[in-house]
Amino acid sequence: MRITVIGTGYLGATHAACMAELGFEVLGLDVDPLRVAQLSQGKLPFHEPGLPELLRKHVNSGRLRFTSSYQEVGAWGDVHFISVGTPQRAVDGGADMSFVKSAATSLARNITKDALIVGKSTVPVGTTRQLREIIRDNKRPNVSVNIAWNPEFLREGFAVADTITPDRLVIGVESSEHEEVLRAVYATAIAGGVPLIATDFETAELVKVAANAFLATKISFINAFSEVTEVAGGDIRILADAIGLDARIGRSFLNAGVGFGGGCLPKDIRAVQVRAGELGLERSMGFLREIDQINLRRRARVVRLSRAMLGSLSQRKIAILGVTFKPDSDDVRDSPALDIAKKLFDEGAEVSVYDPAGNANAFNRFPQLNYMGSVRDAVKDAELILVLTEWDEFKALSPDVLAAQTSSRKIIDGRNILDFSMWEASGWSVGSLGRRWWPNTVVSRQTVSQLELSSGPAS
Ligand code: UGA
Predict the structure, then answer these.
(1) Residue pLDDT, tens place only, 379-430
(2) Which whole-number Å values give the CA distances from 456 to 2, 33, 306, 449, in the listed order?
(3) Which of 94, 204, 296, 365 gives the lowest tally of CB atoms within 10 Å of its CB?
């Protein structure tokens, strides 16, 4: 079975390399000739642990190739995965389906032997049926071209493992014959015990969106309680541990902090609200608007807390450690850390940034910040340090070593990764998300909230 992968962004490049690792011959297509040239030389244009090695291995073995030609793909492949992007539409926050539709149309026009098209992109419910029509209208008369949906659940930073041994496989199919094709593609995972759920198109499309919406809800749930503990007292980390021990709740995705970002969770919860609106179901997904708002309020809270800890922001020197939306990634799309950096810059602060992998991407989006090559360079002369992405390098920071490199012992832990008591014992003032920041000072609860609110707009 020959596999093609249309769109070699994050998802597609990973899928293509992993399919080759599973033993298939794979041809990846991208409309960007530069990307095709890079991948063909075994060069991965983004950061993902373990993936460069797989890419090189299979480009060298000849099992994995890349092209820009739909003609070549259509004549060669038996199973064509579509993994192009569905970015957020600026106009209403819905999913921009133009890349998916264009890929399906181009494929259909160029397929010259019987084939199955399998969508992997995150799409609004109803897409597969629409694409089935597009394929019927554009395919050549003498070939049979069908469609199935197979949503992807991989996480950045764990993309290879999530593709080869996922928690589950979900496929939306309209015939047992198509199910068999996909069972053959995923035979290794299935033999290893990975459950496969075969269902209809709509359920398969919705599983993906529902999973991301649930994860976003979990994060905003704990962050909403953070807002309470920050004013009323209490420690959000212990609260999360305690509720997480209830097996019905579970501890994962209950890490309070600056909230979720990236190319998936924020866009997906907006797109599903737009789609629900189109279906006349605004209220069903209306709660996700609040989930989004809670998430965005975390960013504003860091700015307020910074102002409260420094007294003012204008011309104050602030170092930001971590600018990607999560560790082990160079992705800064909708990154809470980059957004906070921009907000502080807009308020007049002098912002230095260090990230182990994300500096270049952040610079492309916001060159006004001072991008530094190490923690030491970033914190030099800083009056306040913000840790905004939980890279291992930052988890391992020593309060005494850092104190010797900077000018004032003030830090905000935006990811709840530092041992507060150890840092405070070393003379640091530690601001956190989910705890009052002046634990040693006796102030009334009312004063706490007034102090913070009066020190800046709650935007
Ligand atoms: C997410 C999903 O987890 C994947 O299953 C899905 O396949 C992918 O989107 C997608 O739709 O393609 P990813 O965007 O890589 O994966 O990131 P996550 O690991 O889900 O983290 C999302 C954000 O939530 C990050 O900014 C992270 O820092 C934040 N987060 C996560 C928290 O703030 N607290 C937590 O407890 C967990």
Answers:
(1) 999 999 999 999 999 999 999 999 999 988 999 999 999 999 999 999 999 9
(2) 59, 48, 10, 12
(3) 365
Place of tokens 């789609």: 275
Using CB distances shorter than 6 Å, the residues near ligand 1 are 122, 152-156, 212, 215, 219, 253-255, 257, 259-262, 264-265, 325-326
Paired tokens of 297:
């309020």
Structure tokens of 291? Answer: 């989930």
Task: Return the amino acid letter for 459.
Answer: S
Q: How far apart are CA 417 and CA 277, in angstroms?
A: 39
Task: Give the single-character DSSP code of 426.
Answer: T
The proportion of the chain whose per-residue pLDDT surpasses 70, expressed as a percent, equals 95
Per residue in 88-119, pLDDT (tens digit) is 999 999 999 999 999 999 999 999 999 999 99
Residue 450 confidence (pLDDT): 52
Considering only CA atoms, which residue is closest to atom 33 of ligand 1?
259
Residue 249: Cβ-neighbour burial (10 angstroms; 0-12, 13-18, 19+): middle
For the chain (length 459 residues), average pLDDT per consecutive 10? 97 98 98 98 95 98 98 98 96 96 98 98 98 98 98 96 97 98 98 98 98 98 96 94 97 98 97 98 97 98 95 97 97 98 98 98 98 98 97 97 93 96 94 75 47 42
Mind listing the domains of the chain with CATH numbers? 2-199 (3.40.50.720), 292-453 (3.40.50.720)
DSSP type of residue 169: E
Owner of token pair 């160079």: 330
Q: How far is ligand 1, taken at its centre, from the CA of residue 155, in Å? A: 7
DSSP of 385-407: EEE-S--HHHHT--HHHHHHHSS
Give the C-alpha separation, 318 to 384, whole Å. Answer: 5
Q: How far apart are CA 379 and CA 88, in angstroms?
A: 35
CB 171 within 8 A of CB 208: no
**CA-to-CA distance for 328 and 201, rounded, in angstroms?**
33
DSSP 61-112: HTSEEEES-HHHHHHH-SEEEE----PBPTTTS-B--HHHHHHHHHHHHH--
Instruction: Note if 264 is an active site residue.
Output: yes
